[in-house]
Amino acid sequence: MNEGLSRRAALRGLGVCMALPWLEAMTGRGSRAQAAVDTPPAPTPDAVSGTPPVRLAFIFMPNGVNYEAWEPTGGGGEFALSPTLAPLAPVRSHVSVITGLTNKRARANGDGPGDHARSSAAFLTGCQPRKTAGNDIHNGISVDQFAAAQLGHRTRLPSLELGCEHAPRAGNCDSGYSCAYTSNIAWRDAATPVPKVVDPADAFERLFGDATQAAAAKQRLSRRQSILDFVLEDSRTLSDRLGNADRRKLDQFQTSVREIEQRIERARAENTPRKVPDVPPPAGIPEKVGEHMDLMFDMLLLAFQTDTTRISTLMLAGDGSNRVFPEIGVKDGHHHLSHHQNDADMIEKIRRIDRFHVERFARFIQHLAETKEGEGSVLDNSLIVFGGGISDGNRHNHENLPILLAGRGGGTVEAGRLLRTPKETPLCNLYLSMLDKAGCPADSFADSTERLAI
Amino acid sequence: MDPGGLAPCGNILPGMHSDRAQCVRRWAAGSVLAASVGIAATCSTPRAHERAGTQAHPDELALELDRRLSADVAPLLATYCFKCHTGDDAKADLHLDRLTSTHEFLTGDVDTRLLRDMVSSGDMPPRKHPQPSDHERLIMTQWMDAMIAYVPADAPIDPGWFTPHRLNRTEYRLTMRDLLGIDPQEIDIAAKLPADDTGYGFDNIADVLSTSPLAVEQYLDAAERAVDLALGPIVEFGDSPRALRPLEGSGGQPLPRGGFFLYSRGDATGTFEAPLTGEYLVRVKAWETHAGDEHARMSLHIDGGEVQAVDVTGTRAEPQDFEFRVRLGRGARAVSARFLNDYYVKDVADRNLGIESISVAGPLDEATAERPTGWAAVFAPAAKHHRDEDRARAVLKAFASRAYRRPATPAQVDALMRVYQSERDAGGGFETAVRTGLTASLVSPHFIFRTVTPPDSSAADEPSALDAYELASRLSYFLWSSMPDQALFDAAANGSLRTDAGLTAQVHRMLADPRSDAMVEHFAGQWLQLRTLDTVAIDRTKFPEYDDALRAAMNTEAMLFFRDVVRSDRSVLSFIDSTDSFLNARLASLYGVPGVEGDEFRRVTLPKASGRGGVLTMGAVLTLTSNTTRTSPVKRGLFVLDQMLGAPPPPPPADIPPLEQATRANPDATVRERLAAHVANPTCAACHNRLDPLGLAFERFDAIGRLRDTENGKPIDDSGTLPGGERLQGADDVKQAVLNRADQFVEALSAKLLTYATGRGIEPFDRPAIRQIAARTRAKGDRFSALVESIVLNETFRTCRERTREP
Predict the structure, then answer these.
(1) Distance of CA B536 to CAs A332, B257, B633, B704, Å?
(2) CB B614 within 8 A of CB B622
(3) Do A170 and B195 touch (CB under 8 A)?
């Protein structure tokens, strides 16, 4: 048996063999695991109500889709899956298809070409990214980071950013936009993209690395804390000597240092060693694209299952990606194919890629649905968006985006529907509703106009 | 500060805003270099330039802007705007018909920024009037952006700002090499740092390099690891024995409690990890079962080499202790006791040797021990002191002065001493506490960032000189991607770095140093886009010859060639054309160059027939500008315009797909035939009439850079005509065309290298500096060192001003 297979099999089996920290906390079996971890001491809603927390994930796919093969027919609960969405059949009761959503901030709006950069940059921010190759990057906070800023302190990692493709290593990314825009969908604030982890081994390390060697680790944590205290102080004195505009970089650094410091504080307060999943850590980036994606989805599953974080993003690739898919016989680049100009052969290949992405997602949803939590599954307590910031890659249009929503948000969302929204409905309306369900409601988010009934 | 962010330094024409037009930064920056010499940065239908600028001495950029104004923009203004904005009752007192040159736009009583925003936002013309198409709107706004950004070539130098510069992954890795001796060939200490975002085509742009919690986490990890790797484990001296058990061996069997019983010739062996090279005590507890007329004879061996042999007289009830003083080298050592004189007569006599235990103590004392180089270097400053606190302070001060790349201030050392003290208070030993301090300094922003502190006295937008240490770092990160070495620190300390002569001397010394390979690798890798070579997924069924080895060979050729230009101080024009290159057998056979055998690269004189010479016809560049299954003349043309001439055309309109399928119905169509569609469409033709001829001239080279005579059975046609009427036939003509524009090429290269050197994107205000750098380089025979010198000596490298606007 090849190692990749056995690893995946092991991960699949995980759902039954590993109890959730949340569950243990609720039933008292795991002593006071979760409650002790939570700082500040204000009880989390879940600790009060006894309902599992709601997780949010946002999966991004690049370059739009062939929309004709994407859009299902019918409406409400009675609809037929399209050819591209056919792989969702086994999980269709868990997944809603939403049509008609628009991200108008991904449009040029006077900025000229650069739809790929805007597609990824604006996907979760709903803000118009400033066109610059770098000197004054400006976007907006992304919905995941908005949620993480309020809910993140309840878990060891406030959020987890994953990706399946490294950023381009040279050249400009898209028509005068810095690669920061094409490579990142998570933005901590307008000027600060949150980088993603691409190697599954690093992701595993990030999730569980410091859970090992409990005794030595304690000493190390206290040492690190004193180092970080020093770093913060050093950084403040340095910052004082710099000009106003220059402080921004130091501010960013300080914010990051503080976050790690808080994480260390929480870890030091932990009295019971955290559980490390009993699976072999991934060995690195698999050669096959699909295996890489599956493995990153597995990391996301583990993160939710162990309650290491409740908020995550995953970029299957940066927008404009020209990746090839030899395993499904696609040797031309994705971006190249997306500009098919109605060439039948190229359209067919684009559909194959779209379907391939949906298959990966369906597999992930299946696993989440099989992972028990409380009375239901982890999926029942999640809301997971899958989609992209371009509708049709051949046209670069940003209305009628391909968007799926999986999960029931702790029973607050009716899944398995075809939801047709009116033309030009802001994508952020969906996000605004998701924030409600996740327990961090906002009056509005970016260009939202109202809540979307999900 | 003006919230609108007015122009800095007062060297820009009235009405000019420094902060406008984010949207077209790259576009405007391209225009900085756009000499109007036939292959301009702009796209327009070629028409004779009719009106000269109205300035006293309009330079070529002003002339080019004027040309575009009259050819492309003025007709649109006339069509869509004149209805209201002409004559005595012109709305908003805006008399567009009176503005007939760039100069008039910039000096007239017109808010150019407002004008641009009105057009780009669609507010003007009003809805009820005829509307320009998106493309027409773009032509107007792009021209306005370039016009607003216009800076005369002879304006005073504006050095721009110095954003705190986080070390990127490369810089971090190489700094750790030079600071602590961590060899990147063995351990990539930066492996887990998040990838750096890029901007302006480079990954060392300070404004783009951000930090995240993920990065800080990794900085902590990497710092701890680096200190451990460099200093080795913490060593306690003295006679504290560690038992090696269980012993393993041959010619016998294990004893209880980890010993080993030798009943025939053989060894009992244990492994000892010697933390340092030094003196150790090996103790062996042994006994014999006596037989014959000799005692059991035992010898001690280290890694198989005999130390000493002894007779064993002890018995199992009363084992005997032996002690050997040995010198052990650092690392895992096999320590064995060997039984030398087995004696056995069946049922009569049986001499055996029992090894109850082997233990090793040490290293015994510091005087005879050899510390690892890293440890010795870091702890050397402690030698002069006796009190722990003084020793710690000396070590941390010396280390921080290198890690922070300038003498550490007492306050900085005090801060590190608090880290030391808190570890001591928690019960940590001297060395543990010092190491914690060292680790802390490697996470300090003084290490992670390069900064420039403005002198207290300087006015916000007045340029001020970098101090000597700031300049030393700027220089070393430019040429070495790493920290200054001692000689450069010395030059900073004794003030020689502040003089032109001192700075020049350092440039030459540093370029000759192997550490300048970093510039070769990282500048060449990004300027020539070699880093993207491995992401071009060449279809291997169509090109079975293309494999990893060939790709690596292509990359090596380009790197070796670039390095040769640096080390042999050749003319930078050799990048355009050259009679030699560096090949191995694989590449030579791809190129059809005879007589090159084996994997080794060597300098080869290129035969004329090979069609090679210079970077444009290298396999690497030809491949990375191709698509997976075929050549891409558009990409090749763009490469020439952007990388060689600094005159990239604006990106294609969003709704027009890359040309590919216009003639898809005919699968046998050549690439040239497919490209014909560009010329048919005037919107496409505006740019492609410059891009395509340049790219098509390379059609004799296929997608992996191999010469060919036919494509799909049809003969290759590599001829073309540039908009100005210049005829091209083949790659040699493109090279000649670029050489004919040597000034423009040297300016373009200067701009790219200046971007890399300063870690800041080129702005319109950089035009005068680039002009100076290129002119000086040309005056010095285009030598590579002259280019580097000209950058380093330029004010833009040696000074900076505060940023006048919050980003």
Answers:
(1) 10, 62, 15, 10
(2) no
(3) no
Query: Which of A113, A174, A233 lies nearest to residue B653, judging by beta carbons?
Result: A113
Cα–Cα separations (whole angstroms), residue A187 to A313, A353, B249: 11, 27, 61
Residue in B205, B220, B418, B638 to test binding to A, most A beta-carbons within 10 Å: B220
B22 SS3 class: helix
Instruction: Please tell me the distance in Å from B187's CA to the nearest CA on chain A.
Output: 16
Cross-chain Cβ contact B198/A170 below 8 Å: yes
Task: Convert the pLDDT of each residue in A220-238 to its tens digit.
Answer: 888 999 999 999 999 999 9
Q: List pLDDT tens digits, range B10-62.
A: 222 222 233 332 223 333 333 444 443 344 444 443 333 333 333 445 688 88
Residue A263 to chain B, least CA–CA distance (Å): 10
Q: What average pLDDT score do residues B694-712 get?
A: 95
Q: Taking CB atoms and an 8 Å cutoff, what residues of chain B touch A164?
A: none
CA atoms of A162 and A179, how far apart (whole Å)? 17
Residue type for A320, please?
A: G
pLDDT of residue B459: 62
b (16+ CB within 10 A) / e for A290-311: bbbbbbbbbbbbbbbbbbbbbb
Inter-chain contact A135–B537, Cβ cutoff 8 Å? no
DSSP A346-401: HHHHHHHHHHHHHHHHHHHHHHHHHSEETTEETGGGEEEEEE-S-SBTTTT--SS-
Task: With CB atoms and an 8 Å threshold, state whether B200 touches A346.
Answer: no
Which residues in chain A are contacts of B217 at CB distance < 8 A? 206, 260
Which is it for the CA torsion B420, B424, B426, B429, positive or negative? positive
- Give the pLDDT confidence score for residue B117 in this predicted structure: 86
CA distance B434 to B436: 5
The structure's pTM equals 0.82
| Of A212-226, A438-452, B552-566, the least confident | A212-226
Q: Is A19 exposed, middle or buried (0-12, 13-18, 19+ CB in 10 A)?
A: middle
Look at strands A55-60 and A382-387 and give their pairing: parallel
Residues of chain B with C-beta less than 8 angstroms from the C-beta of A332 = 627-629
- Chain A contact present for B199, CB below 8 A: yes
Distance from CA of A174 to the nearest CA of B (A): 8
Instruction: For residues A161 and A183, give the distance between their C-alpha atoms in angstroms, rounded to a whole number.
Output: 12
Orientation of helix B25-32 relative to helix B60-68, angle to 10°: 130
Spell out which residues of chain A touch residue B162, defining contact as CB-CB under 8 Å: 246
Pairing relationship of beta strands B278-289 and B320-328 according to DSSP bridges: antiparallel
Full DSSP string of A13-51: HHHHH---HHHHHHHTTTTTHHHHH-SSSSPPHHHHH-P
Of B199, B525, B661, the CB nearest to A343: B661
If you average pLDDT over residues A346-358, what whole number do you get? 96
Q: Considering only alpha carbons, which residue of chain A is nearest residue B451?
A: A242
- Residue A439: its H or E element: none
Per the CB < 8 A criterion, the answer to whether A95 and A102 are in contact is no
Residue among B555, B622, B624, B619 at smallest CA distance from B588: B619
Number of helices and strands in chain A (H, E): 15, 13
Question: Residue B667 pLDDT more than 70?
Answer: no
Mean pLDDT of B590-602: 95
What Å distances lie between residue B728 and A287, B130, B154, B723, B724, CA to CA? 43, 42, 34, 11, 11
Given pLDDT bands bounded at 50, 70 and 90, which one contains residue A78?
confident
| Alpha carbon distances (Å) from A248 to A191, A235, B212, B439 | 9, 12, 13, 25
Dist. CA B265–CA B155, nearest whole Å: 90
Residue A246 to residue B444, Cβ atoms within 8 A: no
